[in-house]
Amino acid sequence: MWRPFFQPYHLIIVQDGDPSRTIKVPEGFDYELYNRNDINKILGPKASCISFKDSACRCFGYMVSKKKYIFTIDDDCFVAKDPSGKEINALEQHIKNLLSPSTPFFFNTLYDPYRDGADFVRGYPFSLREGVPTAVSHGLWLNIPDYDAPTQLVKPRERNTRYVDAVMTIPKGTLFPMCGMNLGFNRELIGPAMYFGLMGDGQPIGRYDDMWAGWCTKVICDHLGLGIKTGLPYIWHSKASNPFVNLKKEYKGIYWQEELIPFFQSATLSKDCTTVQKCYLELAKQVKAKLGKVDDYFNKLADAMVTWIEAWDELNPSGASTELANGSIK
């Protein structure tokens, strides 16, 4: 189903689990395939920051990519159809979202003013109509919604059939639950913040990898004057994961997030934080200082955040000092 949409592009496949298993990639694709042995070989001791047996391992692909735009997708996601029955080119819509500005400082009631058939409504300040660069495009899902385990257990048969033809900017100062299932981002603008944390094997928590990346990314985007859009495109999420397995992975996160959210809501970064890397390292310090007392896991996570940035800069030396001022790259 994805061949006509993915074949023109370069694929990075991050193999989770047993590295001795051979994954057969269909012919005709331009791709790189990495397993755990490859990650250990490339990163050495710093490979400790990449999760094992968890979807969080995908962020290794963000680190080794040389492309400006990244689209990340789960293995149980298929091509969705719009209400007219036409197959949705998710990648194309993500790129459209990323190429047009965001409006995080003032909400437009017609949603994305840069889409065909829309504009800024009466009362929208002209001084803000230029918008800011868009760093992240967060897509949605038809069929199986991205629910947590308690909601899955309460609503086992619920399916999302609503197709909402809208894209909107998430306002400055507002956090959101970022799902990595159908996600596009500008690697040059926000790549180093897209760390999916320590999850899965050997860790006390799972299924919060994309959430963690989303909270960190939103705080940094707000600080640097970048935008995040959510809405179109849709993909078809084909299967629901086991809610009992999910509950085992999530239950500590469900408690912890009641302290994590206020932490991110109140997090501020200094004026010296002019790059994504500097922002992320300062955030790591705050995680250790304020969340370390919640659980020792957050001390380990803070250390892993620093290791991630060190590894990113080693593999991407030319992009290590990209500065942003007033929403534009210096």
Automatic annotation (TrEMBL):
GO MF: UDP-arabinopyranose mutase activity
EC number: 5.4.99.30
Main location as per UniProt: Golgi
Keywords of this entry: Cell wall biogenesis/degradation, Glycoprotein, Golgi apparatus, Isomerase
GO CC terms of this entry: cytosol; Golgi apparatus
Glycosylation sites: 122
Keyword Cell wall biogenesis/degradation attached: yes
Site (Required for activity): 122, 129
The reaction(s) this protein catalyses: UDP-beta-L-arabinofuranose = UDP-beta-L-arabinopyranose
Alphabetical GO biological process terms: cell wall organization; UDP-L-arabinose metabolic process
Superkingdom classification of source: Eukaryota
Keyword rRNA processing: no
Homology family: Belongs to the RGP family.
PANTHER family registered for this protein in UniProt: UDP-ARABINOPYRANOSE MUTASE 3 (PTHR31682:SF44), UDP-ARABINOSE MUTASE (PTHR31682)
Protein name as catalogued: UDP-arabinopyranose mutase
